[in-house]
Every structure is written in C-alpha cells, then in structure tokens.
Write a structure and sequence with these properties.
132 residues, mainly alpha, two-stranded antiparallel ribbon, 6 helices, globular
Length: 132
C-alpha cells in the first residue's frame, strides 16, 4: 500500500516481480520489506513497460492542462487544493493519476509519481534549449 495506494494493477505487478524475479523458482522464503523495495525499484525503471504506464503517459501528453498541473505538483512541489469539480482534477482522478489526501491534491501513488518524475526529467534533459 505504501507504494501503490492499493491500486490493484500495481499491487499485482509488485507481487509478480517479487515472485518471479526476486525470489524465483517458488522458493519457500518469506517475503520481506526489502523484497518489496527491490520490486518497486524495478517497476519504476523506464525499461519496465506496461500498457498501464503507456496509457498514463499518453493521457498526460494528450492533455496539456493535466500535464502542466502534474508538472507543477511533481517538479515544482506546488500544493493545490483537491476539488473534483475542477475538470482537470476530475480527469486526473478518473484516469488514476490524481487523488485527494486530506483536502490536498496529490499524485495517486509512489509508483506513478516516480514514473512521471522520471519521464518529465528525461524530457527536460533531452529538450533543445535553443541556445546554439
């Protein structure tokens, strides 16, 4: 729950990574927090692709207002009030990127936050500055 906020797809993915990659061969070994931490690190690497992550990025790229809002939350650390009546926030909630945390707008879970952070960072690092 710490990494996924209970998102069923992400919980399943973390479990699959632990079961098949971290403790392969169905060893009778108890899972530890360390195993889950390793699974999280593998899941947020960009070379670990899923349709879920691809759709999340497409949704951000196809809606500039949502992208800008998420950028400000993650990259600038801005604080925003959660108001699902706001169409941009409503869209972000409906596609699972945004959530309410005690009246504040947040990225739904740590997996998404890290994947989006990595994506935006990469875009910034590879963008043309125009200073040639």
């Amino acid at each position: 729950h710490y990494y996924t906020a209970g998102h069923p797809f992400l919980v399943s993915k973390l479990c699959k990574i632990v079961d098949e990659e971290i403790i392969p061969g169905r060893k009778k070994q108890a899972w530890t927090v360390g195993h889950i931490d390793k699974a999280f690190k593998r899941l947020v690497r960009d070379n670990y692709t899923t349709t879920n992550f691809d759709d999340m990025i497409k949704n951000l790229e196809n809606n500039r207002d949502l992208y800008d809002l998420v950028f400000r939350l993650i990259m600038d650390g801005e604080k925003k009030t959660f108001c699902v009546s706001n169409p941009i926030i409503k869209l972000g909630v409906s596609i699972g990127i945004l959530a309410d945390e005690n009246g504040s707008l947040v990225i739904d879970n740590r997996v998404y936050k890290k994947r989006i952070y990595n994506y935006i960072s990469s875009k910034i690092e590879t963008s043309y500055s125009g200073n040639a």
